[in-house]
Structures are given as C-alpha cells and as structure tokens.
TrEMBL record:
Protein species of origin: Paenibacillus piri
Keyword Secreted (UniProt): no
Gene3D superfamilies: HAD superfamily/HAD-like, Haloacid dehalogenase-like hydrolase
PANTHER family: HALOACID DEHALOGENASE-LIKE HYDROLASE DOMAIN-CONTAINING PROTEIN 3, PTHR46191
Protein name: HAD family hydrolase
Species lineage: Bacteria, Bacillati, Bacillota, Bacilli, Bacillales
MF (Gene Ontology): hydrolase activity
Length: 237
C-alpha cells in the first residue's frame, strides 16, 4: 500500500530568486517598473505590497474560480489586479497595462525560480522509501513548466494546480482532488509553509499536515528544514 505526500510548492519546495521570499508578486511588479520606467525607481516594494492584498483568486478561497478556465483568462484577471495596483501608484492606465504584462513575463521567467537545497535530496530519499509525491499549489498556470525546468518533475507523480482546477487552498475541493489521486494510500500528509492554506486547510479535509520553513503554535507538527521532516516521516509505518 502506497504512502503519499502532498507538497505545497512556493515557499516549501522552491521560491522565486529575488531575495524577497513571500513577496514574489510585489518583486515582479517592482522589476517591471525598474525596467520600463526607471525614472520611478523611488517606488519601493513596500509601496506595492499593500495594493495586492485582494483580487487574487486565493484571496477568496471559499469561492470557485472555474470560470478562469484557461491560461489567458486567468492571466487577464491577474493583469487587471496588477494594473489597478499600478494606477494607485500614479501610473496612467496605459502605463499600468504595459507594466502588468511585463510583470507577468518576469514572474514566469523560468530563470528566476530555484529549489531549496534540501528539496531534491529529501524527495529522492523519501521516494526510495515508498513515499509518492503530489504537488498541491496555489500558483500560476505555468507551474508545471517551472517544476520541470527545475528538475523536480522526475520526483512528482501529479501536480494539482489551483490555476488549472479553479479551487484554491484551503478550499476543501482542492484537497478532495488530491485524495482521489492518493486513493487507497496507507498514509497521506500535507506539507507546506502556510498555516491557513496548507495546514489548517488540510486538517479540515481530514489530512494530517506538517508546517515547514515557518513556525506557528497551531501546527501540530513543524520543522525548520526538510531534513528534519524526513527523519520524522521515516518513523511512520
């Protein structure tokens, strides 16, 4: 009987190389400003972040977003969110639309993503000890391209991407789809860095969960690094 691990991606297995972990969207938007309008270089990432606290599908996880059922529809929605944010920073509508396209291109630039140093060694070792890996992520439609570019695809059996299925963690529907993929498993654990989306959401769906690369007293199990997580899982029968 198989064992399955459900992995978050961004902040858990990999991250965008910008030195601003957890603010990949803000940094992509700032890079677009620096590239297209360097005269506005006084704008800081902290000026952008407050305008990105709503509008993204995962800001309303209780709602289905199945109407954003293609990459173009999904990105059209996201570009509108970014354009609105740019206009609040005093850019014209035309400039904001131009910047949102540039920010999109920068966000999905494969060269800007990397894995944590412990990701491949731990997933590989766990795989040899009978653990199968599924990624369950709130991300962009290009997530599979990013994962394959990073060499992670060889270790992953399935990718359940919110931008593809129209449900975001912690919506129980995304976890239901993961449970279907892992049907008949002896052990199933969700692993992620977000207490709400990854941990409490999984537990509400009846899945054991482990918080990594973060700390929160509400998490029943938590580890700073994947190597410590690996030691914990190796004792599960």
């Amino acid at each position: 009987m198989s064992n399955y691990l459900l992995w978050d991606f961004d902040g858990t297995l990999g991250w965008r190389i910008d030195g601003l972990q957890g603010r990949a969207w803000s940094s992509s938007m700032l890079e677009a400003i620096i590239h297209l309008y360097p005269e506005n270089s006084k704008i800081l990432i902290d000026d952008i972040t407050p305008h990105l606290r709503y509008g993204f599908p995962w800001h309303e996880p209780d709602m289905a977003h199945t109407h954003l059922n293609s990459s173009e529809l999904w990105w059209k929605h996201i570009r509108k969110v970014m354009s609105d944010a740019y206009m609040k920073l005093a850019f014209t509508e035309q400039q904001a639309n131009e910047l949102s396209v540039e920010a999109q291109n920068r966000f999905v630039d494969l060269s800007t993503w990397e894995l944590y140093e412990d990701t491949i060694p731990v997933l590989s070792s766990l795989q040899t000890h009978g653990w199968n890996h599924i990624i369950v992520s709130n991300h962009v439609p290009e997530l599979e391209l990013i994962i394959n570019h990073l060499g992670l695809g060889a270790y992953v059996e399935e990718i359940i991407n919110s931008a593809i299925i129209g449900y975001e963690k912690p919506n129980p529907e995304i976890y239901k789809q993961a449970l279907v993929k892992a049907a008949g498993s002896k052990n199933i654990w969700m692993i992620g860095d977000n207490i709400h989306a990854d941990i409490l959401g999984a537990e509400a769906a009846g899945i054991n969960a482990i918080l990594v690369r973060n700390a929160d007293e509400r998490a029943k199990n938590q580890f700073d690094h994947l190597y410590d997580l690996q030691k914990f899982l190796m004792h599960i029968e």
